[in-house]
Amino acid sequence: MRRILLTLPLLVSATASADDAASKRPEPGATAPEFSAPATNGKTITLSEFKGKKAVVLAFFPKIFTGGCTKEMSGYRDIAARFADADAQVLGATIDPVEDVKKFSDSLKLPFPILADKDGTVAKAYGVDNGGHADRVTFVIDKEGKVVKTFSGKDALDPAPALDSCPRAKPKTH
């Protein structure tokens, strides 16, 4: 019994920490936090460089070279031209070192950069840091830097809803 009582506060603390991170996520209508991070294109990318020019789809994912993350980033790759038509810049983001993220990006032939947020600074600013990896959360940010929509968990695996949420997205034709 004593053992259960000693471990219970640790479980509550871990749960509270995850809840705290989620509560810091910018909601639709809020200004998206500025960021600066090295990317797979060899540049340091900031949110402000897109202000007034393009919407940004910032797709956080947990870990490179895993099934779900490969599926998600491949999905973005496969409809990259449609994001370009919608005046939107796709940016993947993960808490992995830039050298490893570059290998992942090259292996999938991704036409968009991935932020290598090794220290988790960007993930923390967006409330998606989950103790060494990012939660799977996608933020659609308009040209003025406001969050338009968010998708999380399995809802963030498919890039189509993010595309449909881009302010200038063209409707799908079937």
In words, what does this structure look like?
The chain has one domain (2-165): Glutaredoxin (3-Layer(aba) Sandwich). The chain is 36% helix and 19% strand. It contains six helices and seven strands, in the order H-E-E-E-H-H-E-H-E-H-E-E-H. It has helices at residues 2-23, 67-78, 80-85, 98-108, 121-125, 160-165; strands at 36-38, 44-46, 55-60, 88-94, 114-116, 137-141, 147-152. The chain has a five-stranded mixed sheet. Strand 4, helix 4 (98-108) and strand 5 form a beta-alpha-beta unit. The chain starts with a helix and ends in a 9-residue tail after the last helix.
Low-pLDDT sequence parts: 1-18
Order of helices and strands: HEEEHHEHEHEEH
- On the 0-100 scale, what is the average pLDDT? 87
Largest beta sheet: strand ordering = 5-4-3-6-7
Shape: globular
The second-level CATH architecture is 3-Layer(aba) Sandwich
| Number of discrete helical segments | 6
**Beta-sheet strand percentage?**
15-25%
Structural class: alpha/beta
CATH topology: Glutaredoxin
User: Which CATH class applies here?
Assistant: Alpha Beta
* Name given to the CATH homologous superfamily: Glutaredoxin
Instruction: Report the span from N to C terminus.
Output: 61 Å
